Amino acid sequence: MTTQLPPGIQLEKVDERIMTLNVGPQHPGSGHMRLIIRVDGDRIVSCDPDPGYVHRGEEKMAEYRNYITNIPHLERPVIHDSCNILYPYCLGVEELLGLQVPERAKYVRVIASELNRFTYTLYWLAIYGIFLGHSTMFMWPAGDREFAIDLLEKLTGARVTHAYFVPGGVRNDLPANFEDVCLRQVNYLEKRLKTYGDIFYDNPILISRTEKTGVLSRQDAIRLGTTGTVLRASGVDYDLRVKEPYDVYDELDVHTNVLKNGDSYDRSKTPWLDMLESCNIIRQALEKMPKSGSVRVKLKPNPKGGNDEVYKRVESGRGALGAYIVSRSKPEPYRVKLSVGSFRNLICMPHLLKGEKLGNMPAVYWSLNYWPVEADR
Amino acid sequence: MSDSENSEQEIQAQPVEEKQPDLPKFEKDQSDKITTKFGSKTEIAFVKPNRIKINVKKEDILDVATFIRDELNYDHAESVTGVDFPADKEIEVVYHLGSYTDPQLDKQVLSLATRATREDDPNPGKDSTRLPSLRDIFYSVEFHERECFEMLGVFFDGHPDNRRLLLPEDWADLPPLRKDFAIKGR
Amino acid sequence: MSVIAPKFRLGYFLKSLTDNIFWIIILLTLVGIPAIQIVLFYVDLPVLDGVLLTPFLAFTMLFHPELAVPLVKSLLYTDFFRIAAFPGFGFAALLAAGTIFIERKLLAKLQLRVGPFYCGKVEGILQLMGDGLKLISKEIIIPAKADKPIFWAAPILFVATAAAFVSLIPVAPGWVVADIDVGLLAVFAIIGFFPIITILSAWSANSKFPFIGGIRALHQMVSFEIPLILSLLGVVILTGTLNLSEIVESQTHYWFIAFLPIGAIVFFISMLAELERIPFDLPEAESEIVAGWLTEFSGMMYGLVQLGSYLKLYAFAALFVVLFLGGWQGPMVWPPFPEEIITEGIEAGPITIQVPGLPVTTQEMLNGTMWFTLKTIAVIFFILIPRGVFPRIRIDMLLSIGWNKLIALAFVNIFIALGLLYAGVLGPGGIL
Fold it and tell me: What is the CATH number of domain B3-157?
């Protein structure tokens, strides 16, 4: 090009056959992120994800708040899975400050974390139904999710953004009679979840739309560094609750669900199997929980960490969620980095969508369990 | 915890024979393999249960990373973090490495850290803060390094696509995670 | 809305009165008198008991209740009644409206919701009326660069075609709006109109989303027309006639679905595709192309398109019943008209009223209508239920089903029908 372009403008040579589609944030078939897709007829030639629409600078803002006021701040990336996002942060801060969490608090944390797995996964399943055009697959999970949210509201006082986990335990104890109500609702949820197997996962049209599309082989899953249900659907048996148990997971019996094929169907089925597993975990935790005890360690105001760094990981609904905290003897952390499962799985999108049919795009890309807000932080 | 500094000094002094009572054995074996191969090029920051941190200079990081991937069986990078130290005039980039294939390394996370000198007035695309990219060794760092590039202004040599990922295209200010970038109102 | 009533002024009141009288007189002369003249000159006046029924005679019958019933009966057998009310538009529109309401309620119960609830005292029964009133009161917005004549004409053409389809369906013995000898062929011709109307309305809207929706609708309807027609050839082979009433007549001992189940299934699936129902609702896929080819229609045009869609649904379901399920055939369960009322009259206390001309409708007609309606409602249920159960199908799967699998099955069906015919089992001269 001989002419000088004004600053900030880029020219791109486009082929004649290839059309660039913008599956953007204002599209009924995308999340809050943009995919720049190049199609040749019906085949996708390349895909360039463009996240960042919900980037709020969580990590930068965390450096301006002290360890306790960071709690309601750092749970914003995933508001309905907020317990799991705060979990590695709280574990890290407890290690930095040398706190010893009481036993009852550990069990309550496990219960809250598993309930949050329900709220996140059912929401994800509902949106998957919308992308596939199945209205019942939207209504049933959205309706059943109310049971889990109702329990969390009794426990923490808020439907989403619970701000429940604090370094040193949890914010408040269980309300009266919570164990019975929780057990009853979890049993009912399990019954409802089992019916999903018939109507959703044995549905011939859903199977034909998701099977053998977006196949991620085991080698690729390991090489791309995927995590969570995407990894387990490709045949890798890795679940942090079993491999690196935190809190009381080493006393509970957790079974990992691993599926072999690595296509969209398996990736959509693994979270459902994980939810059925969560019901068992909650029941065991309710049984084994000590009946009384404190749930919180009293902290001095403005606790300071030493010159140290810590990296803790937790298994959330989307995958391994890690918090890397660097502290330098001040009440505020020097650097907080959240290593989120959605951002790690983002690299699967250009890899899987290349060569795929355009009609398969929503089915494949939402099956990667990608939550745009979390990836942007 | 302050005894990490002490143990750092002691590992440098007595490489193999003496074990401090709080140094876990498996992790120590891992760190010993690295120090025996690379000697003074690497520096063990700390050895804690399930966590090892190694500081490497940026010229040697490709060799050390290849060694870690081939000999020690770490197969993917979990995250790439950039930390800004304006007092030392350096930016530290930490790679957290994990393994899915080796069952002994299930709980281990190896932190590989390098430092790059920091300039006070970054010019994105023509930064003088440069680090070699580990993308050819660990493919999973591709998007993480892009984020590190835009947030801290560290240019990764060898990365095919040093482009903005999360920030808007018309961001004209300092890279946000640097300490001189102050949030308005605080 | 609170109206602040102005103070009463006699002059304004008298002015408004004379205004009203003026307008009434104008309407009567300019509209009423020509209407009466048209009725007098062009409408065939029926003959009752050898007496020509003039309007004067008709008015006197209002005061003689014994003559009222034959008057009503004669009206029932006119063409106009057939087109407007009974097997024609009125009946179909009533069933269509009922279908819309039942669909929303059924889907809601399937999805653990309640559905329409507030409009009308009993479970939201008046919801449709509310929706209709809302649609009438909305502004009709035409896109600026749209092709206006075609854009305005498209919904009307759609309803007209759907109504033409409805007019071919026989509801009860002798009760059909248009009794054509090649009725089934006329049905195929009319079904062939629908893709044309869809693509015309999509093209004339001059916008991206209707365009994509229209192309998808064209692909879908065209590729499913062939299995639709082929699956019905089996029925034609067995009966040897294309007249829909005669096809129903020949199902007195058995229903065709018992011998041609494959044809029935192929017809059912093709019907779902022609109606753009889930799982085949690609042209209207909400999460991808907003509303498909209906995007630019607003207000009553949208209402007309919906009416046409549901009339089409009724017509297809009724066609299925006529061809495969035996139409109006069924055991005679309707009680016969009591003989005493015809011979002696209705007894009401000390008075016995003689009402000549009863019964208004025959027992066969009522029985046939009842069976027909029940079977149509059952088929409509089967059409409505997949909406809650299946996701949307992909376009290449849709085309492969329409062009490969269904045509193959339809041919299998034809061979079965030919086999049954030549083996002497069915058809003219057969055992059954």
Answer: 3.30.460.80
